[in-house]
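Journal club prep — side note

Before the paper discussion, L.F. wants everyone to see what a predicted structure for a comparable chain looks like in token form. Sequence:
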Amino acid sequence: MNLIERFLHYTQFDTQSSEASESVPSTPKQLVFANYLKEELQREGFADVEMDANGYIYATLKGNAPGKTPTIGFISHYDTSPDCSGANIKPRIVEGYDGGDIELSPGIVSSPKKFPELLRHIGEDLIVTDGITLLGADDKAGIAEIVQAMCYLRDHDEIKHGDIRMGFNPDEEIGMGAHHFDVERFGCDWGYTIDGGDLGELEFENFNAAAAKVFIKGVSVHTGYAKDKMRNASRLACEFNALIPPTEIPEVTEGYEGFYHLLGMETCTEQAKLSYIIRDHDRQRFEERKQFMLNCAAKLNGKYGEGVVDIQLRDQYYNMKEQIEPNQHVVDIVLKAMKESGVTPKVQPIRGGTDGAQLSFRGLPCPNIFAGGVNFHGPHEFVSCQVMQKAVDVIVKIAELSAHYYE
């Protein structure tokens, strides 16, 4: 199976995760793909293939280099975003993209006027959706690239490398992907997540991240007799959200600018729940943002009564930069691998997070490398076949260069 066939097959599995779930994985359908992937790795002849009860998959390509070599790892997640359906994905390949509009379905168009990043891929073969679902390149492209690279190394014994571990996990899209990742079992000196975007992206800075749940207690009374009695939780939910600065939301921020993002609201007169994510690269500013949310709740409680608004905050991950900087060699190897593979590095902060952020804080330095997907989490997602192949080339070169680390 070649790289593109492998990826297209992976997209046929619906692996959407759910933030509302308390189970691991958060959706049982993720395990359908996990079992398939485990069997595929076994068929390909890799060693130590195993899947734990939570759906985390580990496997090894045994080293062939003489002498002492580090054990490195490559990691990708197999869940897709809750933001858009991942069921019944209908991918197709636009060969030799000409720079014009791409009609995904009648009336649904990906245009470079709205998505100028398309113009970076003129002449390439683009895999697109039918405009109804996401594609799932985040991060099944990464899985396909890792598996393909390991197969290439398996079949080309002239390329010397140490032991290489593969790790594939659920629930990254809901910030839980690394929570049950067994770093000790993985047994690597360092690793790389293949979960970035377009060609050349290399990321070792990411948001500090927290989730906030806001619960509002209302009082329901017949509207004809509501005066001085009703407390409409739906209206209070709107009032709470109106306290969020309109200049600090995802739609109007970029680069290192943090934000508050309202994921969703469930409201009626008697009760309401609002779900937010909080993001900032700067740790102090991140803590201030969390305190701001608490202050908003306190403000409404002061107005409507103590206990009317309750807020629960949960940290999700932190900026990996402070863990990567003392291990600069893991970045230097990638930069050299990209150069030798004909890829221009684009070092930039992640306006999001990866499992590598959490893993870095658990003793596994883990920068993030491009997988090729663009416009993640929506029906205009696409990936270039040529960029996916470049990702394979970079993975292979990283494996080769890492074997010389102790020389």
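L.F.'s comment for the group: The longest strand covers residues 208-217. Keep this in mind when we get to the figures.
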